[in-house]
Amino acid sequence: MATSKSVRIATSWIRDADGGDCNHRLKRAFYLAARAAVLHDPIAKAYHQNCKSRGLSYVEALKRVARRMSDVVYALLKSGKAYDRSIIEHAIERRREQAAHGARSHAKQSLVHSRPRKSNSPLSQQQVM
């Protein structure tokens, strides 16, 4: 039997995009945790503001925070380690350094590729003259 969120197309049932195949109680729990984190946790608040500054709405940015929280929980469950905030802070700092280093090397490469190439062919020498 079909639920109210299902649509029948030909012979198969397809769920709506908002329905999805997920645990809705778990999804709601992460959403509510993200709302509290955005208000009280500096790391979550900074990430939320970063997402909003890129043009995302409040709710979309909140979903991003919830997703990052679920990533942390998954990593902790997978590794079997206890939560340690200093590890999260260290990982964020490493990522910032990598991004800064990547931006510097990208800028250097764009300068290298934007320089005119020297050629010894007679055609290129005629164009200069």
Question: What brief labels describe this structure?
Answer:
single chain; 6% strand; 68% helix; mainly alpha; 129 residues; two-stranded antiparallel ribbon
Brief summary:
The protein is mostly helical and 129 residues long. The chain has five helices and two strands; from the N terminus they run E-E-H-H-H-H-H.
Describe this structure in words.
The chain is mainly alpha-helical and 129 residues long. The protein has a domain at 23-108. Helix content is 68%, strand content 6%. It has 5 helices and 2 strands. The chain has helices at residues 24-40, 42-53, 58-79, 85-114, 122-128; strands at residues 6-9, 12-15. A two-stranded antiparallel sheet has the order 1-2. A hairpin with a 2-residue loop joins strand 1 and strand 2. Helix 1 packs across helix 3 and helix 2 packs across helix 3 (58-79). The longest helix has 30 residues, at 85-114. The protein is globular and about 50 Å long. The N and C termini lie far apart (80 Å).
Terminal CA distance: 80 Å
Spatial order of strands in the largest sheet: 1-2
Instruction: Report the total helices.
Output: 5
| Helix/strand structural class | mainly alpha
The biggest beta sheet, please? 2 strands, antiparallel
Any idea what the shape is?
globular
Assign a percent range to the helix content.
55-70%
Low-confidence stretches: none
Overall pLDDT score: 79
Measured by DSSP, the beta-strand proportion falls in 5-15%
Order of helical and strand elements: EEHHHHH
Number of strands: 2
| Gyration radius from CA atoms, angstroms | 25 Å
